């Protein structure tokens, strides 16, 4: 990250505030404006002021939350994939879920020029993987309908090689990769005989979800307790203590696919798609879920440029044909879902803006009808029509800015909240992901610009109407 990155990231927020200040200064310089009258009116008619600002607050707050949702998904895909990695699927496969590679093909791929080798073990940095989506029942409170979810399971052959290829480390607190066998015996409990459990390494996101399942199974918290927990967590984030969610730890067990699994480690994968996956031994999870094949292969090259060259060489010259592309490009294509969400948000925002503009117009027209005599007095005191226009227009901008700032502040409370969604390239397949909503300066700037545009459009026509009122007629 360069020195100027924080500056560029804060530009939208600074631009929104700067535009508001420039608009206010320009309006004030255009002529004498009865500011004292405007301030008195906002305070005396505080109910109307409050309701108008509340409309801006609700619209901008909702927009901030929706944009934070998409922003979190974009950050997730950007953080997934190593620039030097090449992802290889079977020819014609649109997603690793639908890919099948023969073992002979994968042996030939790892010998291609450009594939790096582990200097310590002199092995090619090549991760053979099987990607499986498993349907799992979800723990629910008594009396609630049964629910299920999809979990991603990734089977790998050599944990050390795969972790080096993907650049994934484990948390140091008692975490370790699974053994060569991939299973371990659990001790006998309550007279039950010992049983083998599948060893697994969990991503941070799925470790939290499974911990929530255990908590739900242990206690049936009511809505009041859940609301109190949300408020408590929000104040912790505002106080800078951070979000400290519960997650499974090494030694904990969970059930999946009719088998007991034991956690051996937690991977440091927050902010990437791997944080939503369960990693285990391929030779165990493949046959367990009926997919005893290689679905994808990830090889490490020198850098991003070499990854593009290697991918092009594999697509052109390797036989049988395969689909090869840089890993970063593969995850970038999963942004098709994000684009759909963004289009939906723009559509919803446009509808909210139209409704907000008409609402502001209606409120300001009502305010003008109640203040016709005030306008007549101002005209008699020497204020020109242009100054009356500026006065009412400025009121709307101030109300819009206040409501927008409060909306941005309320929307920012969602920053760091955990959400679940699906990433897809739009051609089938996809990944269920666990990510955090992210509110940054770009989103806050967009919210402020949005509220200023709404205020300007909603306040212009009523201000023009106020400007046209004749002094003597308004005093009748």
Helical coverage, percent range: 40-55%
**Helix and strand run:** HHHEHEEEEHEEHHEEEHEHEHHHHEEHH
What's the tally of helices?
A: 15
Radius of gyration: 30 Å
What sort of overall outline do the alpha carbons produce when their principal axes are compared? elongated
> Structural class from helices and strands?
alpha+beta
Uncertain regions: pLDDT < 50 for 5+ in a row?
A: 1-10, 220-224, 226-244
Number of domains: 2
The overall average pLDDT, rounded, is 78
> How widely separated are the two ends?
66 Å
Q: Got a strand count? A: 14
Question: β content, as a range?
Answer: 15-25%
What profile does the largest beta sheet have? 10 strands, mixed
Short description:
The protein is 52% helix and 18% strand.
How is this fold's topology laid out?
Layout: H1 5-29, H2 35-44, H3 46-79, E1 85-90, H4 103-109, E2 117-118, E3 123-124, E4 126-138, E5 147-156, H5 159-166, E6 183-186, E7 195-202, H6 204-218, H7 223-238, E8 253-256, E9 259-266, E10 277-281, H8 282-288, E11 296-300, H9 304-317, E12 322-326, H10 327-333, H11 336-370, H12 372-380, H13 385-411, E13 418-423, E14 431-436, H14 441-468, H15 471-475
Helix pairs in contact: 1-13, 1-14, 2-3, 3-11, 3-13, 3-14, 11-14, 13-14
Polypeptide structure, described:
This protein is an alpha+beta fold and 476 residues long. It folds into 2 domains: 10-78 and 337-475, no CATH class; 85-300, no CATH class. 52% of the residues lie in helices and 18% in strands. It contains 15 helices and 14 strands. It has helices at 5-29, 35-44, 46-79, 103-109, 159-166, 204-218, 223-238, 282-288, 304-317, 327-333, 336-370, 372-380, 385-411, 441-468, 471-475, and strands at 85-90, 117-118, 123-124, 126-138, 147-156, 183-186, 195-202, 253-256, 259-266, 277-281, 296-300, 322-326, 418-423, 431-436. The strands form 3 sheets. Strands 1, 4, 5, 6, 7, 8, 9, 10, 11 and 12 form a 10-stranded mixed sheet that branches. Strands 2-3 form a two-stranded antiparallel ribbon. A hairpin with a 4-residue loop joins strand 2 (117-118) and strand 3 (123-124). Helix 3 runs antiparallel to helix 14. The longest helix is centred in the last third of the chain and has 35 residues, at 336-370. The chain is elongated and about 90 Å long. The relative contact order is 0.21. The model is unreliable at 1-10, 220-224 and 226-244 (pLDDT under 50).
